[in-house]
């Protein structure tokens, strides 16, 4: 009876009946969260790589053009610009100076501005290429590449005063909070993206597209008359071969183009607040719109 009682006890403890009593099992680490729907792990991977690609193009352009535009012998030397800013604030580099022109160049030697501009562009190029190729990123890398690009924009003067520069900075700033603090991992299962950041991205897309539509409605009357596309293709700065045939389209097609533009920019942005299916429809329509716009411009 004692033997059977011991065997039953061992079976309850999880060991075989004929063996010696089991040793206490070591505690197991909890399993990593699964890549389940709604965790936005794929969203993070796509956003980080897409942002890195845009950074890569931006820094590549900066490397080839900055010396001619804002270098020591550029059209608008950034050294002269910073000296004027410093003179305006009585020759001191304080919080007012930094808030007026936030750039790391304040703390560097200005004897060879071309070298500084090249170094910034190459460092940003290396970081963005690493994130694009590997898909791995953390807050340190994304903050570094954002700070470098911010430093270039704030000395770029009119050459960096276009809307897409500020949009890249806004998108890049959100990307800083999209990834883990230290760990370099393509998926990072234990640190899922914050819903606050996801909604911040949605708000950014909503604000940019709705603003683009509103400024058209408040601008030239041709957007209300649906006649803007009648003249667009012959006045665009860099037309492609498709633009010639688009320009020769009938008037009703140009009116449809304008109406479709209003639909995409004034109606579709609200889809991001209407649930998952409408968000999916919003994404598909925006991708098709941007692709068609790129193909005919």
UniProtKB/TrEMBL annotation:
Keywords: Endoplasmic reticulum, Membrane, Transmembrane, Transmembrane helix. Belongs to the lipase maturation factor family. One of its GO terms (biological process) is protein secretion. Residues 160-291 form the Lipase maturation factor 1/2 N-terminal domain. InterPro entries: LMF, LMF1/2_N. This is Lipase maturation factor. The chain crosses the membrane at residues 41-63, 116-133, 140-160, 251-274. GO terms for cellular component: endoplasmic reticulum membrane. It holds the Pfam family LMF1. It comes from Pseudonaja textilis. Involved in the maturation of specific proteins in the endoplasmic reticulum. Signal peptide: none annotated. It comes from the Eukaryota. It is found in: Endoplasmic reticulum membrane. Its main location: endoplasmic reticulum. Residues 1-33 are annotated as: Disordered. It is a multi-pass membrane protein.
């Amino acid at each position: 009876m004692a033997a059977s009682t011991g065997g039953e006890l061992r079976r309850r403890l999880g060991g075989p009946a004929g063996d010696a009593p089991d040793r206490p099992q070591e505690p197991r680490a909890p399993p990593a969260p699964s890549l389940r729907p709604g965790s936005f792990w794929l969203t993070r991977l796509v956003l980080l790589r897409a942002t890195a690609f845009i950074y890569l193009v931006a820094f590549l352009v900066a490397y080839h053009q900055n010396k001619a535009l804002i270098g020591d012998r550029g059209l608008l030397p950034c050294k002269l610009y910073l000296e004027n800013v410093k003179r305006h604030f009585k020759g001191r580099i304080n919080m007012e100076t930094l808030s007026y022109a936030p750039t790391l160049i304040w703390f560097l030697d200005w004897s060879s501005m071309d070298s500084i501009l090249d170094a910034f562009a190459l460092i940003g190029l290396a970081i963005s290429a690493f994130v694009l190729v590997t898909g791995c990123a953390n807050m340190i890398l994304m903050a570094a590449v954002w700070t470098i690009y911010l430093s270039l924009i704030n000395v770029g003067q009119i050459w960096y005063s276009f809307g897409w520069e500020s949009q890249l900075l806004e998108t890049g700033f959100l990307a800083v909070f999209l990834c883990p603090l230290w760990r370099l991992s393509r998926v990072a299962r234990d640190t899922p993206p914050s819903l606050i950041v996801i909604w911040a991205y949605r708000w950014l897309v909503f604000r940019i597209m709705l603003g683009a539509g509103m400024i058209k409605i408040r601008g030239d009357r041709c957007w209300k008359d649906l006649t803007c596309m009648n003249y667009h293709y012959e006045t665009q700065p860099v037309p492609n071969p498709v633009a010639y045939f688009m320009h020769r389209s009938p008037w009703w097609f140009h009116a449809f183009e304008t109406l479709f533009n209003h639909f995409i920019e004034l109606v579709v942005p609200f889809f991001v607040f209407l649930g998952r299916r409408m968000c999916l429809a919003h994404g598909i329509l925006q991708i098709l719109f941007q692709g068609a716009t790129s193909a005919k411009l």
